[in-house]
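Pilot study result, target chain (195 residues):
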Amino acid sequence: MDDVVIVREDDPRCSALEADGYRIVGRSWGAHLHFAESPDLTRLEQVVTKVRATGIAIQELDVSFANALFELELANNADYPFTPATHQPLPVMSEVEGLWLHGKRVFGAVDNGRLVGAVVGKVNDGVGDNDFASVLADYRGSGVGAAIAAASIIAFANDGVRTFTAGGAGANDASLGLVRSLGFTVDEQWCSYQR
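Predicted structure:
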């Protein structure tokens, strides 16, 4: 989008932009989760266990799942909310395969051999960050998204990560509810302005 300015909601420039004829064309948020040195992961483990009890496998995925992840992203791409600050481009197979080559970790939900949800994350400067999460429409609202997100946090926490970040589009209430349910605090709100 041409002439888009993205600023925090509490930035004094918001008033100036609005006075100059800019309007809000999108909202986004950022959230953080901090653990103590010896974190209690019981609540997160319960989220994973609840979904596993339905017969869905929650596991870290290796590159052999690249094609399944590509298909999942292709199926879900139109459902991602679009804002100037948050959007998910159409998947490209070589980029999906490259996730593992670039140090990303992929966690998924597998139901009867079919990948029905995935979370992709990484650690940057000691902070765990969620790149994206994707759940097939038929499985949304069932706890699958929370379970794979929880599994990724548990894995990173077991590797010593104590701080996590997440973010998303303001229009995606489900994503916002999910991160809050996992203990994240939403501490950044962003506005995308366009003249």
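One observation from the pilot: The two ends are 10 Å apart (CA to CA). A full batch analysis is planned for the follow-on phase.
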